[in-house]
Structure to design on (386 residues):
């Protein structure tokens, strides 16, 4: 595929490149670090390399607002805010290890375009909830601005929420304004040992519904490496964490054997939900979103079919691997549970025949098409990847 290398900070050049592609009938694939390039079908399109749009535009720690160019590496953004004892509360992560690579390639623009949110999403919201505003160039080759650089903003359509998860199919984002939050002073994880999926979800639901203000809840089933572990994390100022921890300890004891995790064990547990290293790297990888109470249905039904899985978001997110011939079964199980399934990783042949995203209902598909055409009437960003 041809690559268009864009000079740093030049939206005019980006607009010209898009206009040229429209006139020539070319398709353009927007990319940052390429850390998620393995999701979706392979395409024949010109690649617009957005890595030149990098750097911090403005950071006001007192106002909890960061404005940064879309091609800035995620690691740089996280290091910057950590230096001010702050964080991206939706806990984004680098997909490099998920696709068998190294970390370090992900950009903040790619994170928002893919709506990447980690374990804290269950309490802090997703990427879309932390995007305040952005600059971009549409498929009409028009530069535009949406949202604002303030936390409280109710003017106009909420386009920042629309662009999060759009995967570069609406516009090429050049700049983002993000809400950041203070980093917790203390973090403690409690493990409940030996629960099956149904009992684990009950325990996580009880914790999430309590006054313990749980930040994350996840479950790893039993394997050859050890017993099943249900992890519940609380965060905040030390006196508050200790008081809430005592409450959580008593509550979780009603569901099984409780251990307060050592720091290293807790770090490893939550890291595995980002890298997915407990799951086989050779089978297709699926991301199944369902109402949390329906998570065990997916685990039990597809587990009987040979799937290996991990459960996050208190049961609302299931990462699973299963052989390549089970795509229909995965999608059907997700639909019966009131959710949807995304094919994240697979071999070339599977990606060519199985859609990455769960097929939407006809009404929703028609609405999505109208929205895309509003931003991209010529379909210059419709590469066939999805």
């Amino acid at each position: 595929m041809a690559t268009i290398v864009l000079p740093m900070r030049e939206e005019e050049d980006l607009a010209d490149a898009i206009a040229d592609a429209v006139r020539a009938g070319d398709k353009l694939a927007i990319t940052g670090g390429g850390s998620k390039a393995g999701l979706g079908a392979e395409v024949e399109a010109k690649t617009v390399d957005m890595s030149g749009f990098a750097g911090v535009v403005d950071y006001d720690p007192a106002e909890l607002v960061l404005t940064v160019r879309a091609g800035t590496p995620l690691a740089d953004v996280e290091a910057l805010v950590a230096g001010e004892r702050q964080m991206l509360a939706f806990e984004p992560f680098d997909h490099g290890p998920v696709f068998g690579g190294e970390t370090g390639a992900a950009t903040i623009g790619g994170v928002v375009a893919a709506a990447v949110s980690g374990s804290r999403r269950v309490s802090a919201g997703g990427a879309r909830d932390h995007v305040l505003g952005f600059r971009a160039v549409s498929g009409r080759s028009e530069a535009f601005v949406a949202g604002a650089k303030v936390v409280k903003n109710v003017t106009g359509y909420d386009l920042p929420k629309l662009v999060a998860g759009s995967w570069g199919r609406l516009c090429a984002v050049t700049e983002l304004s993000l809400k950041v939050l203070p980093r917790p002073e203390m973090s403690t994880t409690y493990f409940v040992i030996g629960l099956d999926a149904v009992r684990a979800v009950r325990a996580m639901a009880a914790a999430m519904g309590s006054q313990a203000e749980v930040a994350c809840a996840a479950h790893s089933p039993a394997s050859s490496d050890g017993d099943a572990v249900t992890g519940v994390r609380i965060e905040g100022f030390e006196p508050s964490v200790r008081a809430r921890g005592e409450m959580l300890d008593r509550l979780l004891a009603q569901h099984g054997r409780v251990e307060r995790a050592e720091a290293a064990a807790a770090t490893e547990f939550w890291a595995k939900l980002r890298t997915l290293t407990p799951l086989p790297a050779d089978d297709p990888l699926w991301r199944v979103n369902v109402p949390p109470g329906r998570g065990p249905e997916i685990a039990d039904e597809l587990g009987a079919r040979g799937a290996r899985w991990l459960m996050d978001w208190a049961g609302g997110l299931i990462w699973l691997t299963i052989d390549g011939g089970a795509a229909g079964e995965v999608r059907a199980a997700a639909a019966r549970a009131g959710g949807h399934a995304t094919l994240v990783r697979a071999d070339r042949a599977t990606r060519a025949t199985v859609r990455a995203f769960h097929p939407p209902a006809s009404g929703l598909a028609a609405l999505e098409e109208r929205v895309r055409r509003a931003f991209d009437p010529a379909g210059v960003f419709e590469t066939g990847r999805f």
User: Anything to note?
Assistant: Residues 238-253 form the longest helix (16 residues). The longest strand covers residues 171-179. DSSP finds twelve helices and 18 strands in the chain.
